[in-house]
Specification:
This protein has about 675 residues and is of the alpha/beta class. Helices cover about 45% and strands about 10% of the residues. It is built from 24 helices and 16 strands. It has a six-stranded mixed sheet with strand order 7-9-10-11-8-12. The longest helix has 29 residues. It is elongated. The two termini are about 40 Å apart.
Length: about 675
């Protein structure tokens, strides 16, 4: 079969004429060269050869013997320099047999005890060739007195310019302490470097519509102001990590024909007191000068967290001062006409209420996880640079990745390309994408992990228990694949294709809990043992049981009560919003729910014990089984999935689901 390779053509780059750039001159190099020249002149320059005499009496003997022609006295140094007569006996007696190096200048020097004692000696012998001088060695005076201060000044000038350059500001107010300047990156009009537009943002139709309205207002404000409307002052992008909040902001920067300031919330935080507020002021000052413009603050929860009621109970005063300044700039007495603020966070529940009020962030744009149609669009974007063949179906990939964010889908495409390259293929196939999904969800296969036959049998019966119960329950997620090959930290895993439900009813939760407990129930029922491998199952079941009782109001003894705090800012302090008696009741109800589902799981396994044991033995032989194997043992499931119902309602003849994804059951 001929394999078709799909690849987007790459445009031929236009050759550009290389531009000649001259060498850049660094001022610090000039300073260094000057200093080296001065030191070289001092060290290697021509110097007078002078012999130092350590003994003052010996010098007196030379004078008495008539070897000295004249004497220069430097009173400031208490040093004298004398010139020896130009005669061979005198030179040999003073300088020794090797007197040739000193024959030119014939200089000797000696330290005198004091000027008075030297004068007495000269008077006694009546020596006349004496002159008194002050020390005038200007080079030494410069090197020892002026040069250190000059070097210190040059060092401070150099460090000041370096720090100013690192902070993105020019020399001016602040100098070396110019830390109060904003670190925002400016994307100005006409900047086409790494430009991203709305065409590069797949899915997110609702969020793009609201963002495009803001961009449209900046391009054509008259269309809105004619009816008396005003542009929203701010928009907050809220959603899980990896859903494309920052990508939307980059698209705004590429689409809007106005300056765009971009920075992170952590850029306001500094170790110096008052720096955060100063940077906020400087940011808005720059924005007002370039209005109309857009300011984007990524991860605004770094500075926008709710302010503490008691500053002595661990609140951060510096962060709160920064937030106060931000609140004032966004909607205070000052006018920020033409400045629109975009911000992104995945923790909107912890933001200060004053930040979310109308007049500051007027809109909250929710950027949710993509549905099946949006995932298809995202796959089309990330598959552009990937070499794929005709076996790759984008509709199939979109259906196999429920719950994946845009960042996860990008990771799947990249991982599939790496897997294909590792296998020496010339293009990426469908199986490579399935292996990439398994790699991301479950981790890397560890076939070399040493497992005994007893442990392998326990894992097989455990995983077969999950598979059996999920196949027999209507509301449990359809099982796709079961493996007893260790992956990541799990010794075995089961892959499901969870329904993308808009509402979850009580039967959905109970069936999922029962299927999750199937592994532990199978171990106890068929192997008469319990192992630590079910810890992940028990953790998930316990959390769901407590959520049913305390959050969803689905228990018999505590109906229609929810103690969930959606704001994330509990007003109850250190106390629970219920009494100790209610806490005991919550515990009893959660235990009751788990116990009921555990007994239900054992009943289902006893009823289908023969089929369960067939699956377990098949797992021991093949290590991996698929949904087709379960159909052979138990028959076709009588219930259609929600996805199949939507396809029938919409008349969509897309390919039915096959192998793949989601929640891993570790053992």
């Amino acid at each position: 079969m001929e394999q078709k390779q799909i690849k987007t053509p790459t445009p031929t780059p236009t050759p550009t004429k290389p531009t000649k750039k001259g060498p850049k001159i660094n001022v610090s190099w000039i300073y260094g060269v000057i200093i080296l020249v001065i030191l070289s002149l001092y060290v290697f320059g021509d110097k007078v050869a002078i012999k130092e005499i350590s003994s003052y009496p010996l010098f007196k003997q030379y004078v008495t013997d008539g070897y000295i022609s004249n004497i220069d006295v430097y009173s400031s140094k208490k040093t004298i320099e004398a010139t020896v007569k130009d005669s061979i006996p005198a030179l040999k007696d003073v300088f020794g047999e090797n007197y040739q190096p000193y024959a030119k200048d014939r200089k000797i020097s000696v330290n005198i005890p004091s000027s008075e004692r030297f004068d007495e000696f000269i008077s006694e012998i009546n020596y006349q060739q004496v002159s008194y001088k002050e020390s005038k060695n200007y080079l030494e005076m410069f090197l020892y007195s002026v040069l250190p201060f000059l070097l210190l000044i040059l060092f401070f000038v150099f460090m000041s310019r370096r720090m100013t350059g690192q902070m993105g500001g020019s020399s001016g107010a602040g100098g070396i302490f110019n830390v109060g300047k904003s670190k925002a990156q400016l994307f100005d009009k006409g900047d086409t470097t790494n430009r991203i537009t709305f065409k590069d943002v797949a899915g997110l139709a609702g969020a793009k519509q609201e963002i495009e309205e803001i961009v449209s207002f900046l391009k054509n404000p008259g269309k809105y102001t004619e009816l008396g409307g005003k542009i929203p002052k701010g928009a907050l992008l809220v959603g899980p990590p990896g859903t494309g909040k920052t990508l939307l902001a980059k698209a705004v920067a590429g689409e809007a024909d106005v300056p765009f300031f971009s920075m992170s919330g952590s850029d306001f935080v500094e170790m110096f007191v008052g720096v955060g507020a100063s940077r906020v002021r400087d940011l808005f000052r720059q924005a007002k000068e370039k209005s109309p413009c857009i300011i984007f603050i990524d991860e605004i929860d770094a500075v926008g967290r709710s302010r503490g009621k008691n500053p002595n109970m661990g609140s951060n005063d510096e962060r709160e001062n920064t937030l106060n300044q931000l609140l004032t700039e966004m909607d205070g007495f000052g006018s920020n006409s033409g400045v629109i603020i975009l911000a992104a966070t995945n923790r909107a529940d912890i933001l200060d209420k004053a930040l979310l009020r109308a007049g500051r962030f007027d809109r909250q744009i929710h950027v949710d996880l993509p549905d099946i149609h949006e995932r298809k669009q995202i796959f089309n974007v990330h598959l552009r640079p990937v070499k794929i063949n005709e076996s790759v179906d984008v509709n199939f990939l979109a259906k196999q990745t429920p719950g994946f964010s845009g960042a996860d889908i990008a990771n799947v495409c990249n991982e599939a390309a790496l897997i294909a390259a590792r296998k020496g293929k010339s293009f990426v196939e469908k199986q490579d994408f399935l292996d990439a999904v398994d790699r991301i969800v479950g981790g890397l296969e560890k076939k070399t992990k040493i497992i005994t036959q007893t442990e392998k049998r326990s894992i097989a019966y455990h995983e077969a228990g999950h598979a059996t119960i999920s196949w027999m329950l209507e509301h449990a997620s359809p099982l796709i694949k079961v493996t007893i090959v260790p992956r990541g930290e799990a010794l075995g895993a089961a892959w499901y294709l969870p329904e993308e439900r808009q509402l979850t009813i009580k039967d959905h939760i109970l069936d999922e809990m029962c299927a999750t407990l199937g592994g532990r129930a199978a171990e106890e029922l068929f192997l008469n043992q319990t192992s630590t491998g079910a810890i992940n199952d028990l953790e998930r079941v316990t959390k769901r049981a407590y959520a049913m009782v305390a959050y969803f109001g689905m228990s018999d003894k505590l109906p229609n009560l929810s103690y969930y705090d959606s704001s994330g800012n509990s007003d109850f302090g250190f106390t629970k919003p219920y009494s100790e008696k209610t806490a005991e009741l919550i515990d009893l109800e959660a235990k009751k729910i788990v116990a009921e589902q555990y007994e239900r799981a054992k009943e289902i396994l006893q009823k289908h014990a023969e089929g369960h044991n067939q699956l377990a033995e098949l797992l021991l032989v093949r290590e991996v089984i698929f949904s087709e194997d379960l159909e052979k043992v138990f028959g076709v499931r009588p219930w259609s999935s929600r996805h199949d119902e939507l396809i029938l309602q919409n008349g969509n003849d897309e390919e039915p689901k096959n192998i793949s994804e989601e929640s891993e059951v570790s053992i």
